[in-house]
Amino acid sequence: MSHDLGFWILQALNALQLSMLLFLLSIGLTVIFGLMHFVNLAHGSLYALGAYFAASFAAVGGYWLGFFLAPVAVAGVGMLLYSGLIKRMRKSGPMAQVLVTFGLIFALLDLTRIFWGDLALGIAVPDVFQGRTAFLGVEYPTYRLFIIALGMAVLATLEFVLRRTQIGAMIRAGVDNDVMAACLGINVERLFFIVFCVGCALAGLAGAVAAPLLSVTPDMGLQILIPTLIVIVIGGLGSLKGAIAGSLIYGCVQTFGAVLAPQLASVLIYALLAAVLVIKPVGLFPAKG
Q1: Separation CA 79–CA 3 (nearest Å)
Q2: Is 120 in contact with 58 (CB distance < 8 Å)?
Q3: How far is 37 from 97, CA to CA, in rounded Å?
């Protein structure tokens, strides 16, 4: 075990960067589930679409064009999905929702192959985030620090919107009891639509910021799906606190597990997941209701 403080700070930053990326992806899925009680397994495919849109826009106008337009494009896909499929399936029960969205994963997978092919795409890190920055006494890639800062900014924004604004109060009321919220005059259907589109946009944003770090491939949505579901199950469904707690736990276990016990790293997170399910089946910080 290393006694170098810089080494542990570096691992902590790696864990935080992974956690913030998972948070961007899981918060949309968990709020959609918490409010709509809809199991959208295709959320990872929207993350992959975000990466592809970002790569396409970046090829035309640079990284920042992809960064800003990819979430909008994925939100547009979300609008089509909600109007054509999700709205009709909301009352169909969890089994039908799982089957339909599971099929949607492969439909979107094939669509990405048709439009972009099987070859991996890449995006260059923008000039302003090239190189490394000294932070807490260690040299760390500037772009990864940007991801950490972006995740914290999204967390602070969502915390403010959900806790301090009227629409946040309506969302919390809908998560707690959508029937009672409708009786109080809240347009729950419109709220569902807005939350679904925002969740899709956050998945697109996660894909856009991950694209310079990872190869943009058709199956990247499948690869991220299991970690995202683990984050949600550990943290608890439908809550902002659960999404950030689950993301931090996953990031720390995965990163420090690879350093401290590399031979057990692949099973540590599953052991933790099993322990949480046994001790607290609803997750550590589930939404009330």
Answers
A1: 51
A2: no
A3: 10
The tokens describing 236, both together, are 């608890």
Comparing 3 with 266, which gets the higher pLDDT? 266
Q: What is the mean pLDDT of residues 195-213?
A: 91
The amino acid present at 129, given as its one-letter code, is F
Neighbour count for residue 199 (Cβ, 10 Å): 26
Query: The whole model's pTM is what?
Result: 0.90
| DSSP classification of residue 138 | E
Among 70, 69, 78, which Cα is nearest to 52's? 70
The CA–CA distances, whole Å, from 87 to 71, 180, 183, 193 equal: 21, 20, 20, 9
Q: How far apart are CA 202 and CA 28, in angstroms?
A: 6
**pLDDT (0 to 100) of residue 206:** 92
- Whether residue 243 contacts residue 30, with contact meaning beta carbons closer than 8 Å, is answered with yes
Half-sphere exposure of 103 (CA within 13 A, CB side): 7
Q: What are phi and psi of 263, to 5 degrees?
A: -75, -20
Helices 188-210 and 63-81 meet at what angle, rounded to 10?
150
For residue 119, give the 3-state DSSP assignment: coil
pLDDT score for 1: 61
